[in-house]
Amino acid sequence: MTRWARFPGPREGLRLWYELAEDGRAPRQATFDRSLPVPPAGGLTQADGGASAAASRDEFSSVRERFGPDGARFHETVYGVPTDGPVRVPSGAEDVTEEDFRLAWDTARRHRRFTRHRTGPLPEGSLVTGTVTALPWGPGVTGLGVDIGGPGRGFADFGQLPRRGEDWPTVGTVTEFEVVQIRFDVRPEGPDLEIRLRPTAVPPPGGPWPRRGPR
Question: Which of 81, 58, 69 shows the shortest CA–CA distance to 151?
């Protein structure tokens, strides 16, 4: 029988939410920290703080299977590390309803999605060299695919690119990008890892794209 519970963490200001299976292990968990700001995504009250974790054991395993150890490190950066083994639930833990846990879980996931990640394999703001691999919707529409030599796929949104499609880089262009956001999406075919990017320099109309390496 599944149990849902919340209780204070090991230090002041932490609030832990757990979904617990019969064996005591946690398929999902969320942690809120009063020392962290609530990101623009909103959610629980300011007093509960921002989420420092929203980990799913099954999702983490799927990411590791699909993208390997490097992909797993990206997932840990975004959503935290799942608890290994049975959870030690203190005697003063408060049982909550499945709906209460779902609301807290959804809030924590939004928080982590919109939090700027300053650590991990590619902290936001990192500079990388990438090769344009595809313009799936054509120049000037939606964005373009970029290979940066790691797990997942790089993507530059049209809002980060020149207004005119004819000024977009062509397939095969090698240039420098800044990491804007690390995103995971859960899809029927499995988890998807996307590294959102923006070029660090845009050439004048008709000019060649600068080829620059990480500084």
Answer: 69
CB-CB contact of 143 with 155 (8 Å): yes
Torsion of CA 27, 28, 33, 39, to 10 degrees: 150
The domain segmentation of the chain, as residue ranges, is 3-114, 127-199
Q: Which CATH class is domain 127-199?
A: mainly beta
Q: How confident is the model at residue 190 (pLDDT cuts 50, 70, 90)?
A: confident
With tokens 């999605």, the residue in question is: 113
Identify the band that residue 185 occupies on the pLDDT scale cut at 50, 70 and 90.
Answer: confident
Sign of the C-alpha dihedral computed for residues 143, 145, 148 and 150 taken in this order: positive
- Asked whether 38 and 50 are in contact (CB, 8 A), the reply is yes
Residue 41 pLDDT level (bands cut at 50, 70, 90) = low
Report pTM. Answer: 0.85
